[in-house]
Design goal:
About 30% of the residues lie in helices and about 20% in strands. The chain is an alpha/beta fold.
């Protein structure tokens, strides 16, 4: 077995991983104990990375050859790389010649490596001469970028992870850190244990798992953050809690802001934000008077039509109280993607240039042109993400190159996005996975390498650069993104008027030396800039471990105590001297008045829709969605509502509802939740048409959650308001329902799901998700996975459609028991398989319930818990049959590592005694939940605090008896 040190490809924490491999197959993964981001810890997603890279998954999901589609709607055929890139170069050259360079656009990803990003940036702005290059980081980080630049002068988070242990007050805003950045949350828990006096304030409309550690939770109304922060500054001024000397010495613009916040009285703020004045006062006191206050914030701040104002208003509080530039203090934006920071470093956005240079600055454009050896860099602003797809929908952009992202799932206002993809003359999709929704719109599909195969660097939230190393060779004909783009660029260069005396892309293709040469070129662009990394090299990153910037070659602060792998050279904390990255060295207070959400609730659309992450899933789930066990915690798509709203609308848990906005509608189950307040709702951002689909009454295909969201964006950052939309929620009158599920062989799982996905549009509502059990952590049992298909319709579909579903799930066999009532539209199929070790027992391997799904809970329990089912033959086939004695609903999985369900936890808690900490320790000792990655610990703590009546209402898991 071979061990390879690399970096996790999920969130912006940037955890180090050690990949275990044998030959060409990744066989395991563990946390790197010497990486300074995680010190060996991994979350549920990171700890299962190797399972998403199995040979069975790769063969069913990966794009392994270049594929060309000769006309839209037809099947794509395999073509050689040379032919594919020549076709792309011909089409791009022709469009550029006929319509100009701004008729093409590139939409890339924060999951690309820095080297990939750099080559894309050079291709668009250096070779083609267009600034139409943007990234899905526009959807997550651009407001944070704009907020830092407007106040501190540079897109540079001033804090570091070590600040957690030094903070006396943590101020968490718009971030469900427990789910979105689990390993950072483990560090917060560590800091709290080491310093019980630490105070934690969480500001979020929802009561998320992050709130479980909070001393104070401010459940503000959606979008009211600026009013809250202005109100806090008003109180700081009134109570004398600001630092006038620091303001006078190190800042500018305070007087204008002071006038703006004068009217933001506690009563006014409490009314707008929907909180108590006492809570506002307490939060302000903690922030201002703590010896060190560290704020952590993420999408709840950024994804807003006032995103820049929100970010800047929070930074204003740090400047007003001198809570910056010292251990444990500062405004710390948590990056959403693994390399959103690296993409910004190389200028991989429509308004940026390499090394944090601004496109609007003529001097900066001249510097980059000189570095690249081209005559100029275009001055015209490029199209940002929303603008780019609108321009394609309008026919202005005629060719799109999309890399490592899935806009047909992740972009707001899917109707416009899909119209853009359909109208665009030529669409290239460069992707590792052939299963994303965007692939269906591609004229040319180019196979890319992914985690475990890539080579290069990424930068995490604390400005730390880590190496990404390949553990196995690329499968099929997949190539590194930078290599394919450089190859394309060389071909395009020969077809365009020359912009440079020599080639702009002199890199060795498909070789680590090529990636290193690109990084060295990027490093040179940073010389003298705020992110200067000229003191670093690939060799140093290999020997001394991950390093933070800035780290100029003549000012490196090492050798200092660092990770066990070597020296820490870069600067961990910025602005300690009070000198900021502005022309005069002073930070600038940003004066922006509060603006409400772009789309307010009204009588037609009375609910606020919030979107966000799930604990065990990542983005569009092209990777995590291949692993059944990661669906245990949240098994299927649903919308969460406040229980009072559900009672008023006469809705029950599991009822299907239609959620409609001014842009689209979708149908999905509803569930009461104490997390959301009255008139609010929540749908996870991950549920695209790959998992949630159907057909509207007008015949249009439903495109997942982003059929509802709106493309209105912040005027400064151009980041869309994905965190809020006004919606209407009504019961969906769909009298006919279907539920089918089956365990499947690993080599058929993904192919079956794709085949079922093609059938989803035949129903008014349909969802299709994997499920799983077992695995190395779960008692050593073999990993098993299956597929669950749920649907509803106005009337029973043709029997042939149900038979097709049965066949896909392996129910068309002699082992299947059947019942059908054509007149009532009912059909049942149960596949029972004899136990290999006991011929008298049989287990349910798959089932289909059509027309009457009332027996779902107990039949699904028989399947998922793999209980003996031989004696239940007639009950299995009888519509509406109640649960047999000894079979109870299993409840959801709380601990994904060990497959521990909420019912098992409740059973243990019923007999537990002692303090909360003692009961938690007993729970962990008995069931092992929360003892591996720790992601479930906040939920375990909440269950430990449940009242006796709440515990009693949780079903007890018992074995079925023959």
């Amino acid at each position: 077995m071979t061990d390879t040190r690399s970096t996790c490809p999920y969130c912006g924490v940037g955890c180090g991983v050690i990949i275990e491999s044998e030959g060409a197959q990744i066989t395991g993964v563990r946390g790197d104990p010497e990486h300074p981001a995680n010190f060996g810890r991994l979350c549920t997603k990171g700890s299962t990375l190797h399972l998403t890279a199995s040979a069975a998954v790769t063969m069913q999901t990966r794009l392994l050859q270049p594929m060309q589609r000769l006309q839209r709607g037809s099947a794509a055929a395999s073509v050689p790389w040379a032919q594919a890139l020549d076709v792309a170069a011909d089409r791009f050259a022709r469009i550029i010649a006929d319509h100009g360079p701004d008729a093409v656009g590139f939409y890339v990803s924060g999951q690309l490596l820095t080297e990939d990003y750099y080559v894309f940036n050079k291709l668009a702005k250096g070779l083609i001469g267009t600034n139409n290059l943007d990234t899905n980081s526009r959807l997550c980080m651009s407001s944070a970028v704009a907020g830092y630049k407007k106040t501190l002068g540079s897109d540079a988070p001033p804090s570091c992870y070590d600040d957690f242990k030094d903070a006396q007050c943590l101020f968490i805003v718009g971030s469900n850190t427990a789910w979105a950045h689990p390993i950072l949350f483990r560090r917060i828990e560590d800091a709290r244990r080491a310093n019980p006096a630490m105070k934690i304030v969480v500001i979020d409309p929802r009561r998320t798992d992050t709130c479980e550690i909070a001393d104070l939770h401010l459940a503000i109304q959606p979008g009211t953050d600026v009013m809250l922060f202005h109100g806090m500054l008003h109180l700081m001024l009134r109570e004398g809690w600001t630092q006038p000397a620091y303001i006078a010495r190190h800042t500018s613009g305070f007087d204008a802001l002071e006038r703006t916040v004068r009217d933001c009285t506690p009563d006014q703020v409490a009314k707008v934000c929907g909180i108590e004045p006492s809570a506002l006062i307490e939060a302000t006191r903690l922030f201002a008077n703590s010896p060190s206050t560290l704020s952590l914030y993420c999408m709840g701040m950024n994804q807003s039509s006032s995103g820049t104002a929100k970010n800047a208003a929070l930074i204003n509080l740090h400047l007003a109280t001198a809570q910056i530039g010292k251990p444990g203090a500062g405004p710390f934006s948590l990056t959403g993607q693994p390399n959103a920071m690296g993409g910004r470093e190389v200028g991989g956005m429509a308004n940026l240039l390499s090394a944090h240079r601004d496109l609007a600055n003529a001097g900066h454009r001249a510097e980059v042109a000189a570095l690249w050896g081209v005559a100029d860099v275009p001055a015209a602003p490029g199209k940002t993400a929303i603008e780019m797809f609108q321009a394609a929908a309008d026919g202005e952009i005629r060719a799109l190159w999309i890399s490592c992202t899935n806009p047909a799932q992740s972009m707001p206002d899917q109707a416009t996005v899909r119209r853009a993809l359909e109208r665009c003359e030529f669409v290239v999709v460069q992707e590792a996975f052939a299963t994303t929704a965007t692939c269906a719109y591609a004229d040319l599909l180019l196979p890319a390498t992914t985690w475990g195969e890539k080579v290069g660097t990424v930068t995490n939230s604390e400005r730390r650069i880590s190496r990404v190393r390949p553990a196995v060779p690329a499968p099929g004909a997949a190539r590194h993104d930078w290599s394919a783009v450089a190859d394309f660029a060389t071909r395009l260069e020969a077809r365009l008027p020359r912009r440079a005396p020599g080639t702009l892309f002199p890199y060795t293709l498909d070789d680590p030396a090529g990636a290193q040469a690109i990084w060295n070129e990027h490093r040179e662009t940073t010389r003298g800039r705020d992110l200067d990394i000229t003191g670093l090299s690939w060799a140093l990153l290999d020997t001394a471990g991950p390093q933070q910037w800035p780290c100029p070659e003549d000012q490196a602060t090492g050798p200092a105590t660092g990770p066990a792998t070597g020296r820490s050279l870069g600067k961990a904390r910025l602005y300690e001297d009070g000198v900021f990255a502005t022309p005069d060295g002073r930070a600038r207070f940003h004066n922006a008045a509060y603006q409400p959400v772009a789309e307010a609730r009204d009588e037609r659309f009375p609910f606020s829709l919030n979107t966000g992450r799930l604990r065990d899933q990542w983005h569009g789930m092209s990777r995590t969605g291949t692993l059944g066990r990661l669906f245990g915690h949240v098994p299927e798509p649903l919308v969460q509502m406040n229980g009072q709203d559900m009672a008023r609308l006469q809705l029950g848990d599991g009822d299907l509802v239609q959620v409609s906005s001014r842009r689209g509608a979708l149908v999905l189950p509803v569930r009461a939740s104490t997390e959301v307040g009255p008139h609010q709702s929540f749908i996870a951002m991950h549920w695209g048409e790959e998992y949630l689909s159907g057909q509207s009454s007008s015949g249009e295909r439903i495109a997942g959650v982003n059929a509802l969201t709106l493309p209105v964006f912040c005027p400064d950052s151009k980041q869309p308001e994905l965190k809020h939309a006004a919606v209407r929620i009504l019961k969906a009158e769909l009298p006919w329902s279907l539920l089918a599920a089956a365990w499947l062989p690993a080599d058929r799982l993904q192919a079956t799901r794709e085949a079922l996905r093609a059938l989803m549009a035949r129903f008014a509502f349909a969802s299709c998700v994997p499920f799983g059990a077992g695995g190395a952590l779960q008692g050593g049992a073999a990993e098993r996975s299956g597929v669950l298909f749920r649907a509803a319709a106005y009337e029973a579909p043709p029997a042939a459609l149900l038979m097709e579903i049965e066949a896909l799930l392996g129910l068309a066999s002699d082992e299947t028991l059947r019942y059908a009532d054509v007149r009532r539209g009912q059909r049942r199929a149960m596949r029972l398989v004899r136990n290999a070790s006991n011929a008298q027992e049989a287990q349910l391997e798959g089932f289909l319930l059509a027309g009457d799904t009332r027996a779902e809970a107990w039949i699904k329990t028989l399947l998922l818990d793999q209980l003996p089912a031989q004696s239940f033959g007639r009950q299995l086939l009888r519509p509406g049959a109640t649960a047999p004695a000894g079979v109870a609903a299993r409840g959801k999985v709380v601990c994904s590592c060990f497959g521990v369900t909420e019912t098992a936890i409740a059973t243990t808690l019923r007999s537990g005694t002692g303090s909360e900490s003692e009961r938690l320790a007993s729970l962990q000792a008995g069931l092992r939940c929360g003892t591996n990655c720790g992601s479930c610990v906040p939920e375990l703590k909440r269950m430990v605090r449940m009242t006796a009546s709440e515990i009693a209402s949780t079903p007890v898991p018992v074995a079925a008896t023959a």
